[in-house]
Amino acid sequence: MDLNLDTLKREILAYLDSAGFAVFHGRTGGLEGSPMVLWDVEQRPDFQLFLDVARKSGTELIIFAAREFQPADLDDLVAQLDDMDLTREEHREYESRLREFRIYEGVTCSIELAFDYHSRLYVYELQPDWYEDFLSLEDELVSRFAGEDEGDEDEPLGGYFSKN
């Protein structure tokens, strides 16, 4: 779903304040590795329903994290393109696809709300469709780049040892 997460971020913070929750400002992705249960944002996108569950469970502390799409997100991938074994056409196509994401620089691309209940994190996470598309492209490039590196493993010492 393509939402304006900048507006939603302000609404969530205002609601958290008015509802009396203590807000811990975390970093997006900081919850990974913890046992968690994800809220079904597709069927129930209203963050207030999620926060009502937190309140009814006795939670007073909410973890809030938001991330803005940074130019470095794109610059790193463009730099990887130069290191990849791509045809000129493939390079141009990837570069063009990445350039399309420049319009989102500085825009909120991820919002996470979470609370702990019985040593399990309950998480509400939203990302717009365009960011999901970017992450898919990033995965495609990273896996392609990793695939090129795997080919070097057959050569002893990374190809620096002569087979003569």
What is the β-strand count?
A: 5
Helix content: 40-55%
Strand line-up across the major sheet: 1-3-4-5-2
Into which percentage range does the β-strand content fall?
15-25%
Write the H/E string, N to C.
Answer: HEEHEHHEEH
- Total number of domains: 1
Radius of gyration: 21 Å
How does the major sheet shape up?
5 strands, mixed
How far apart are the termini?
58 Å
Shape assignment: elongated
How large is the count of helical segments?
Answer: 5
* Weakly predicted, low-confidence segments: 155-164
User: Mean of residue pLDDT?
Assistant: 87
Report the structural category: alpha/beta
Could you characterize the architecture of this molecule?
By secondary structure, the protein is α/β, with parallel strands linked by helices. The protein has one domain (5-123, 131-147). Helix content is 43%, strand content 20%. It has five helices and five strands; from the N terminus they run H-E-E-H-E-H-H-E-E-H. Strand 4 (108-117) and strand 5 form a beta hairpin. It is elongated. Mean pLDDT is 87; it is low at 155-164.
